[in-house]
Design goal:
Keywords: Membrane, Transmembrane, Transmembrane helix. Pfam families: QCR10. One of its GO terms (biological process) is mitochondrial electron transport, ubiquinol to cytochrome c. InterPro entries: Cytochrome_b-c1_su10_fun. One of its GO terms (cellular component) is mitochondrion. It is built from three helices and no strands. The longest helix has 26 residues. The termini are far apart. It has about 60 residues and is mainly alpha-helical. About 0% of the residues are buried. It has one domain.
């Protein structure tokens, strides 16, 4: 069982699918973590507006 070009060609779509699914799961699970939000999610242009905190300081308990 060598790593031939045809074997890697058949394996690539499956690995890509699992990679995208794993990255999606990481983003879903990590979206509740403030450090993940500030370091990663706020740097993505389409997602940043959703995670921006517009709450006035007077309404925050801490």
């Amino acid at each position: 069982m060598g790593m031939s070009a045809s074997f890697l060609g058949r394996l690539a779509p499956n690995l890509a699918m699992w990679g995208f699914a794993g990255a999606g799961a990481l983003f879903v699970v990590g979206s509740a973590i403030p450090l993940f939000q500030n370091d990663i999610l706020l740097k993505i242009p389409g997602v940043a507006a959703y995670y921006t905190d517009n709450t006035p300081d007077s309404d925050k308990p801490f």
